[in-house]
Amino acid sequence: TEERNFTMPGYKVEVVDTTGSGDAFDGAWVKGTLMSWDLERTASYSNAVGALTATGLGAVAPIPRTEDVMRLIKEQNGVW
Known about the structure:
Blueprint: H1 21-34, H2 39-53, H3 66-75
């Protein structure tokens, strides 16, 4: 396979609690993989999910809806 490198910037959010952000990122990565998204789209989506999860308190309640993730990506000119 061809080796590739790319940089994927994070999203700017008001952080409340990072609990669960990594797990949410991982779950989003699995979704991107199952949907056969390319690496850039999967990384962008996963970064957005992890970032939005950090805006709430706790590990489960702040997990964002897809609409919120897409809004953040669009607002901050993320890869899609």
